[in-house]
TrEMBL record:
Keywords: Bacterial flagellum biogenesis, Cell projection, Cilium, Flagellum. Required for the efficient initiation of filament assembly. It comes from the Bacteria. The keyword Transmembrane helix does not apply. The keyword Ribonucleoprotein does not apply. It holds the Pfam family FlgN. InterPro entries: FlgN-like, FlgN-like_sf. Gene3D superfamilies: FlgN-like. Belongs to the FlgN family. This is Flagellar protein FlgN. One of its GO terms (biological process) is bacterial-type flagellum assembly.
Amino acid sequence: MSTTSATDSTILQCVKDETLAMTALATLLKSEQDALVDDDLHILNEVVASKSELVRKINELERIRLNCLSNAGYQQTLDGMDQHLNTSSDEARLAWQELLSISEKAKECNHTNGLLISRKLSQNQAALGVFQQGSATAALYGPNGQSSIQAMPVKGVIVR
């Protein structure tokens, strides 16, 4: 096996590994979406830990693929990958298209989850607003993250 075909094979394997990891992430994001809709905090906590690990793994796999591209004489960019694919097998081009497709699905799911989280946050802030109506301290926390509730003397109580 020549160095070029060994590099091509390594890059193809990186793309396949990235696709597996990205598929797992897309599945996890769908689970997160279901948990957000169902208000399942237990599942959400599990998803957060798993999601962080998968994103770390995907970043590492991408770094390895980009290093392989560089070693093969291509730029570590999408253009470099496209140039590599122009001289690669159909299998490599199909694997790359599959990775791009699943990445797009994961991106859309992540965007939807962000919208769900924003909506939940707005609902929670509105609920807090109801509790705080008429209060001299309208916000529980200030911009610095510290509590803005201060002890207020209770009117009509005699302190001895």
